[in-house]
Amino acid sequence: MGLGDRQLKILQAIIKDFITTAEPIGSRTLAKKYDLGISSATIRNEMADLEELGYLEQPHTSSGRIPSDKGYRLYVDHLMKNGTNPQKQKNEIKKKFIKSVGEIEQIIENTAKFISETTKLTSIVLSPQLKQGKLKYVKLVSIDSNVILLIVVSETGIVKNTIIRVDEDYTFNDLEIISRIIDFKLKGIRICDITAFIIENMYEEVIKYSAIVKKIFPALMNALEEMVSIELYLEGLTNIFDLPEYHNIDRARNFMTLLDQKEYLIDLLLSSKEELDITIGKENKHLEMKNCSLITATYQYNGFIVGKIGVIGPTRMDYSYTTSVVRSITRTLSEILNEDKRK
Amino acid sequence: MGLGDRQLKILQAIIKDFITTAEPIGSRTLAKKYDLGISSATIRNEMADLEELGYLEQPHTSSGRIPSDKGYRLYVDHLMKNGTNPQKQKNEIKKKFIKSVGEIEQIIENTAKFISETTKLTSIVLSPQLKQGKLKYVKLVSIDSNVILLIVVSETGIVKNTIIRVDEDYTFNDLEIISRIIDFKLKGIRICDITAFIIENMYEEVIKYSAIVKKIFPALMNALEEMVSIELYLEGLTNIFDLPEYHNIDRARNFMTLLDQKEYLIDLLLSSKEELDITIGKENKHLEMKNCSLITATYQYNGFIVGKIGVIGPTRMDYSYTTSVVRSITRTLSEILNEDKRK
DNA sequence: TGTTAGCACTCTCTTTAGTCGAGTGCTAAA
DNA sequence: TTTAGCACTCGACTAAAGAGAGTGCTAACA
Q: CB-CB: which of B147, B157, B237 is closest to A163?
């Protein structure tokens, strides 16, 4: 490497300028705008060097320079000062959350909204992955003679219930016994470890009480499956219209169409295991993401790693500010979720 | 009125053409394309008359004509043949639905997806309004010494539950008694009729058993409130990018921003009580909707009127096809929801 | 009298050419 | 090593010209 001090300063100035203007910048304007103490000609020479080294790009001969992905990478890894995130904002974040009483879903949705509002970008939040969580409680409740309610509760406090309609006769006592057996057998097992095998095993044991288990077991499987399924909250999609890079219809369309694919987004967020990860432009695998950057972070729920937060924006995004927001939000979110637990 | 037969034919041809091409059409092309048996000059004269009567518009002198809102209205009310909706499609619809086992939310979401896919427009589906529904069942279940689960079930089979964390001591017996009293008092009452008054009344009666009711009652209120809240499913937003009228960024942005406002959409759909309602262009109250048309329909759940379906597209949409799709979907949806009940 | 052919005219859209301006690379002087 | 100067480049903008689709009006025709 060995970029000179002056080159770094120039690179930084270019990035800073491009982040706000989205326009290529030339040596003369750079010299005028930023007090670098050197003439435009010198800057010109340095710029040529920086381009040769791959930190800058030139959209066409005789236009200004813009930062390359490599340039952003250098900036993010070494040049960027960690954005100051005043206490003020943190309090505001909390307040915002506190509004949503109880429900985790609400908290997560609000988190996504808050991120997209403060960063003016598109945010994605993945609900906690409960695969690792243990089952806490299973219960069957008779609603009336042909409706049974199945309740499944995870250790982390997620509740799933299913209405089961049955034609078969059953007694309250049968139901209670079945309920207890299932609860006893599954309690404390990690949800991802509850295989069809375990359930089938139980089936044998329980079928003698009543034929309704034929309806109950599929419902149970279903409830467990839903329990570990990941919910995705996407907010601030329309924010991209404010960015000059999306004034082109096709770009906007591609972006939106891409973000419409839930599975893709889940995959995208889960592929990084880091606590905070920045993927810049072409570092992204997917073609449509080549001119986007993605910041992902991991939040904790109940001690073990679980949820994901992501922000998608143009490579030209304000990395310093955005990462500081993301970092602060994950911290606050983890705090709130664990507080909630302790209560 | 008194539009001649020939004028109606011309109007119909223009509308038909404009629906597919989105381009103003002139007398010559109209004469060539559609075998009307009259010359372009005659068409020209008739077009001038139709314009004077307000059924056509001319974007600029010396361009072709396009239908006006009034023209569409005439078309929708009198000219449009009810689109044939082959049995084939109906079966396909059903199949699509049947995939989603059980959960009403799933069925509704799939409905929205299906509509937007078949019409290539943006669809909105409102979940059933449960205000009119009666409460069927309330139960408190002890999960562990400081966690209680509150379950509320409506007659229509919607379940809401809330985890309540308590520090106060309580016995299983207390909990059971409280649970029974609440259930007894509220069972059979329409959810919208359960006022704070009723609940407070009950509070007095129940507080003697344990202090935990202080936590239970707010949770109950909350659960009831959530129960009657309307969910909204929006699908096919990105479809508008395929429409030439939204190749203009600002239009696309306005459209998306408008549809981002849940409250507005709910209001929009609920403001029509008809079984099937078509609102064309300027008939819409909201400025941003002046160049859109909206088709809304009502579906039934459990006998009484409850849910809403909507399709939003440009005034140039294929009314015949779209209404037939919407009509058929509402019918199928009502059927499925009631079948589900009977099971 | 309604219908049609013909024609001059209108207006948008596209293409072409010309100009402007921001920027570059290179050379030579400080 | 830095800087001033200069010729050159290339996209963006503007103006003019031409094409194409359409109109309204007039006059002829069945």
A: B157
